[in-house]
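Notebook, student rotation project (T.W.).
Task set for the rotation: take a protein with a known small-molecule partner, predict the structure of the complex, and write up what can be learned from the model alone. Partner molecule chosen: pyridoxal-5'-phosphate. Sequence and SMILES entered below by T.W., checked by me.
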Amino acid sequence: MNPKWVGELKVDVSLARELGFNPYYAELEKGLGKPARLAGREVLDLASNNYLGLANDPRVLNAARQALDENGLSLCGTPIATGSNRIYNQLCRSLEQFSGLGRALLYPSCYQANMGLFTALAGKQDVVLVDQFAHASLLQGIASLGCKVMPFLHNDMDHLRKLLSRVGSYRRVLVVSESVFSTRGTICPLAKLHALAEEFGALAVIDDSHGIGVLGNRGRGILEHEEIPSYSGIYTASLGKALAGQGGVVAASCELMEYLGYANAALIYSTALAPPMIGGLLEALRILDSEFPARRARLETNRNQLLASAHRAGLKTVYGRAPIVSILQGSDRATLLLARELLSRGVFSTPFLPPSVPPNKGVVRMIAHAGLTADEMDNACLALEESAKICQENAF
Ligand SMILES: Cc1ncc(COP(=O)(O)O)c(C=O)c1O
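Predicted structure of the complex:
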């Protein structure tokens, strides 16, 4: 029998019950292929982070199958012990070239990379300055240090400068942010953040999960977008978004990565990325090299059309330049209702409620990925405008 306190561990799902709509753990019948199917009906996917529409590209799937045939499903070991092989190292080298940084290491997920990174870098005697809206994985990794944490106002480099000039005598100083903020679509002014970190002798850490494969002329992410040729900090990114796979990458100078390769428990005590995933990711990177401009153009067109439609419908959006349309709904109820109305019209979106966003700052995030055709976008926009009207008429 469970101890009594287990019965006290409860999540309040009363609102979802009342609305007859719980958007979380939605079960797709198969995958993101077109059409995607959810709860017995076809849906347009504007929820996933499949920015470039590569998740079901036949070339990516074939490469994954080939890697499976040649290398098996798993190496059943950690990278430091038995989990590394030729394609594993090939993906590391490709990501080094892609990021332009000295050395890259692969993690089972970016969440794990972010969570584990900080304990290898800092401790109680140190201070971390972090953007107030940074991702949970960064915040939890930082919190695990038990050190002084100084949040700075979102993307506000004047505030960051002020805090840095007041930091005082800590052993190590880290400045942490996200490139494209996942719930808002705003972009970190990384060139300025990096220059400030260097000026004050701090180490910059940037999570480029929503920038990799999206930002920059060649899709290489925030470092290309912000034109930072000699980034001296740590770079992390999820491989499960535009690159349409799974896993995380951490890249930095060879010296720093040599250390992390032995000192980071999140890497050395966890099973290596599986070979089929590595095969698929290598192919996604190859495709990105040749097809990025066309896919990026489609992503931009879709995003602009969706944004215009949201504004036509009288919806408020967060001002962000990334291909994330983040509709400000405010209350939990209004946020869930817009997502419910969208789904009832065949559009799958992501509602974010606290703690993913501050209280009463609920947003519905829509990502109009590059694989959506002009007709599908027209349907998605029509659904958005109708859904907004229903919400407004009923004063939700
Ligand atoms: C900004 C950001 N960082 C890290 C992660 C975690 O990445 P992963 O899914 O690879 O664990 C996510 C989301 O999933 C994210 O949005």
